[in-house]
Amino acid sequence: MPDVFTKRKRSEVMSRIRGRGNKETELALMALFRRHHITGWRRSQPVFGKPDFVFPKLKLAVFVDGCFWHGCPKHGTKPANNAAFWRKKLSANKARDGRVTRTLRRLGWRVVRIWEHELARKNEGRCVEKIQKVIRGS
Ligand SMILES: [Zn+2]
To answer: pLDDT tens digits for the chain (138 residues)?
Structure first.
């Protein structure tokens, strides 16, 4: 079945989804920081790659990656409509994530990437551990 949206309309629709998704996952991580008394983070810092959270003193950048947009190995589905378009788009996203992580590390940053699914309540313990391990190591 052909996509009911034109390409332009489709990317408009999807970018709205992305916007909302990011906001939600960022808020979820913020709540998790608060519940576990993790302090020292800032949002919207002018750091390369626009990390979702930055711990300036620790030079630690945290990204929250949506499972769909960043191609999570567990939940990264590939839409059947416009398959070629999506394959290209999503693999470009992944490539960019890799470039950003490598560049930040070269600049002396520690980088933690958290999957959207790691923010689920049942995964929270592991997610906190992952962040605290990096914080302790600094
Ligand atoms: Zn996932």
So the answer is: 556 667 666 665 565 555 455 788 999 999 999 999 999 999 989 999 999 999 999 999 999 999 999 999 998 888 889 999 999 999 999 999 999 999 999 999 999 999 999 999 999 999 999 999 999 986
C-alpha to C-alpha distance for 135 and 55, rounded to whole angstroms:
9
- What ranges do the domains of the chain cover? 22-40+62-76+95-136
Q: What is the 114 CA–ligand 1 centroid distance (Å)?
A: 9
| Alpha helix ranges (H) inside 1-138 | 7-35, 83-106, 124-136
Q: How far is the CA of 24 from the centre of ligand 1 (A)?
A: 15
